[in-house]
Specification:
CATH class: Mainly Alpha
Number of helices: 8
Helix content: over 70%
Radius of gyration: 22 Å
Number of domains: 1
Shape: elongated
Largest sheet: 2 strands, antiparallel
Mean pLDDT: 90
CATH topology: Four Helix Bundle (Hemerythrin (Met), subunit A)
Strand content: under 5%
CATH superfamily: Cytochrome c oxidase, subunit III, four-helix bundle
Number of strands: 2
Low-confidence stretches: none
Length: 243
């Protein structure tokens, strides 16, 4: 395809090229909203039907790690916005710095998710044959707080008294938890790949006040991924939260 500098042949101006790229990204994000919307609808239906088990499942999540990750993503949105602004005003060195900061924060988020997933594996909360909501309370480790374990055990007994099929319905919750957070993490990994490319191009001095479309387009994608987590955190972590 013919290209003059950063302007591709089928566009008349860089501004027209930028508007077309932004329009394409917004169309893509609308399809992503529909994609995640199906999961959110499934979650809403099942939470309404099995609220007791979903509440018990939510209380097994580590709200400190979830809250920390929420702060991390909010900070990454700030650094991404700063990278876009720096590209717009021609601060080339700061573009690279803020892109690297965004990538670092995204990597921290994914690292924390790995820790959380390992916790679920250790506590037998992976949907499947070995799934057991009572496992942690019945097999505490020396690192566990005895008071917290006692409270968890008491709450689970109340939950099973209300819903004898808590294990089965709890698997629905964790299937949605892993499905929704796993899909979100996949989007984060894609975003990290895009950031690596932007960092490479920024070191080459490609982005100027006249041309910084890739930074803005990737910024739109990154902000969308962050917004999805802003919805996931309360939906998954804050159900009947009282511990």
């Amino acid at each position: 395809m013919h290209r003059t500098g950063e302007l591709y042949g089928h566009f008349e101006t860089l501004e027209q090229q930028k508007e077309s790229a932004a329009f394409g990204m917004w169309i893509f994000l609308v399809t992503e909203v529909l994609f995640f919307g199906g999961l959110f609808l499934t979650y809403t239906i099942n939470r309404h039907a099995f609220g007791t088990a979903f509440g018990a499942g939510s209380n097994t999540l580590d709200i400190k790690l979830g809250g920390f990750n929420t702060v991390v993503l909010i900070m990454s949105s700030l650094t991404m916005a700063m990278a876009v602004w720096c590209a717009q005003v021609g601060k080339k060195q700061l573009v690279s710095i803020f892109l690297i900061a965004t990538l670092g924060l995204g990597t921290v988020f994914l690292g924390v998710k790995v820790i959380e997933y390992k916790q679920k594996f250790d506590h037998h909360l992976i949907p499947g044959q070995g799934f057991d909501m009572r496992y942690r309370s019945e097999h505490p480790t020396p690192a566990d707080d005895p008071k917290e374990i006692a409270i968890e055990k008491e709450e689970l007994e109340k939950t099973f008294a209300v819903d004898p099929d808590t294990n089965a319905h709890g698997q629905l919750y964790f299937s949605l938890y892993f499905g929704m957070t796993g899909l979100h993490a996949l989007h984060m990994i894609v975003g990290a790949g895009l950031l690596l490319w932007l960092i490479k191009e920024s070191f080459a001095g490609r982005f100027t006040p006249q041309y910084h479309t890739p930074v803005e387009i990737v910024g739109l994608y990154w902000h969308f991924v962050d917004i999805v987590w802003i919805y996931l955190f309360p939906l998954l972590y804050l159900i009947d939260r009282h511990r």
